[in-house]
Design goal:
Elements lengths: L5 H20 L2 H10 L4 H13 L4 H11 L2 H14 L1 H8 L9 H30 L5 H33 L3 H24 L16 H6 L5 H18 L5 H8 L4 H29 L2 H18 L8 H28 L5 H29 L5 E3 L2 E3 L1 H17 L13 H9 L11 H16 L1
Helix pairs in contact: 1-8, 1-9, 3-16, 4-7, 4-16, 5-7, 5-9, 6-7, 6-9, 7-16, 8-9, 8-13, 11-16, 11-17, 13-15, 14-15, 14-17, 14-18
């Protein structure tokens, strides 16, 4: 059986680093800025935000093909390359000098949808591949370290390209178009570099089920697991409540609060830095006390994030900074432990189908969220709501509803069980015993993965 050697870890780290740069430059504030550049409506922005989740349905045929034929690595690498290369027609069409010549926004949405189809296929292949390759005892530490490296790379890319966009806008008449063109071309380049390292990671023969089931029976099998069904219901409700508000935050900052693009990028960078630092702690906690308690603990903060955004004022830049840093730290735990939770409760047999059913179900909730919010905002565009001389924007109503829905859906988590789970009280006791950051060590723990890679390279 192939072992997961240090060189394989290094290649996976590099793959994640460059892949996350691609994801950063083609998503988040950059994608919202692109949508505003194309003059997309709130409803279209809602559909744009829903695309990554709508395309999860394509994981089902992919997982069945993996289960039947294997070839996980080939499927993953080819699909990931196709997803990144599809951004070439996106940037050519979207940044065409005469956007009135044809329906630019619709064509851009189509190619982004197609790109995410391949992303979904590559992701379920990668998930199955890594779940067999990485030993369970280092699962939390490995993904914590990998996510730290990904976060650092994305943070640097966000700073550099966010600032370059403002410079292009300042010095050139059509600076936004030029800046986005440079950003997206760079994203494709970094995405293809990640493919090089991904292709170096070894594959393992996938574990075949004890007996093959017809495709229809394979689809029904995960729903026979009562605990997994509860996890699906929670994931759908939680993702709906989160994406009901989250895709419109950047729009709210840029348009309603009139913050600059540079400041919004700085906020995203600070959040990524907090995520980067938090991954070290959450990864170790995941290995030590598993994942459910972390999800419950961090989830309580995530519930109230959209509520606090309501009280942000354009004149107060400190409040959004504090909120972004705190949110980034807690969301690191939620992201990492949700993934690890799934890996722990899905059985080895038919795990590809379990993964696909999860991502499709969670994706349905996440896709419906921004679409329903976009329809809700559009229905209130002509309505002026004031409360004690305070103008209540439709997006503010979305934030309030998101808070209530997050609070409700989080209660479902208590009915789901994880092997060797502990209580939130035990998690709090563990956190109390963690020493503060040793200033004599500086930030070596943040740099540790990079230092280890350099050390191993120098030994060769």
């Amino acid at each position: 059986m192939t072992q997961f050697l240090p060189d394989d870890q290094r290649n996976s780290y590099y793959d994640g680093m460059f892949a996350n740069i691609f994801g950063t430059l083609t998503g988040g504030a950059f994608l919202t800025g692109f949508a505003l550049h194309l003059k997309m409506s709130e409803l279209m922005i809602g559909f744009l935000a829903a695309i990554p989740f709508l395309t999860t349905v394509f994981q089902l045929p992919a997982s069945y093909a993996i289960q039947k034929y294997g070839k996980r690595k080939n499927i993953c690498v080819i699909s990931a390359a196709a997803a990144r290369l599809l951004w070439i027609p996106i940037l050519i069409i979207g940044l065409y000098p005469d956007p009135a010549a044809y329906p630019v926004a619709g064509m851009v949405l189509f190619f982004i949808f197609l790109s995410h189809v391949f992303i979904s296929i590559s992701f379920v292949s990668w998930q199955s591949w890594m779940s067999d390759l990485i030993p369970d005892k280092i699962l939390g530490t490995f993904f914590g370290t990998r996510n730290m490296i990904c976060g650092a790379a994305g943070m640097i890319a966000m700073i550099v390209y966010g600032k370059s966009l403002d410079l292009f806008k300042f010095y050139f008449k059509d600076g936004m178009s030029m800046g986005l063109s440079v950003t997206f071309w760079s994203a494709v380049l970094f995405g293809m570099i990640s493919i090089r390292y991904l292709n170096k990671v070894p594959d393992l023969p996938s574990i075949s089920p004890s007996r093959h089931r017809p495709f229809q029976q394979s689809l029904a099998y995960p729903f026979q697991d009562a605990n997994f069904r509860k996890f699906l219901i929670f994931s759908m409700a939680w993702n709906f409540s989160v994406t009901f508000a989250s895709p419109f935050l950047t729009l709210y900052l840029l348009r309603e609060l009139n913050f600059s693009f540079s400041f919004v990028v700085v906020l995203g960078t600070l959040s990524a830095l907090a995520d980067l630092i938090g991954m070290r702690l959450w990864g170790r906690l995941s290995d030590k006390i598993k994942n459910k308690a972390v999800l419950q603990f961090a989830g309580w903060f995530a519930v109230f994030v959209p509520f606090w955004w309501i009280f942000i004022k354009p004149s107060n830049i400190l409040a959004p900074v504090i909120l972004h840093i705190t949110a980034g730290w807690f969301w690191a735990g939620i992201t990492l432990c949700t993934n690890n939770f799934l890996l722990r409760i899905a059985p080895q047999e038919f795990k590809n189908t379990f993964f696909s059913i999860y991502y499709i179900t969670a994706g349905i909730g996440a896709a419906l969220g921004p679409i329903m919010a976009g329809l809700f905002i559009r229905s209130l565009l002509q309505v002026n709501i004031t409360f004690y001389n305070w103008t209540v924007y439709p997006i503010v109503m979305v934030f309030l509803l998101s808070t209530l829905m997050r609070l409700t859906s989080l209660q479902l988590l208590k009915h789901i069980h994880e092997p060797e789970e502990v209580s939130v009280g035990q998690l709090v006791r563990v956190l109390r015993n963690i020493r503060g950051l040793n200033l004599t060590d500086g930030f070596h723990f943040v740099l540790h993965p990079f230092m280890e890679i350099v050390r191993r390279k120098n030994q060769k």
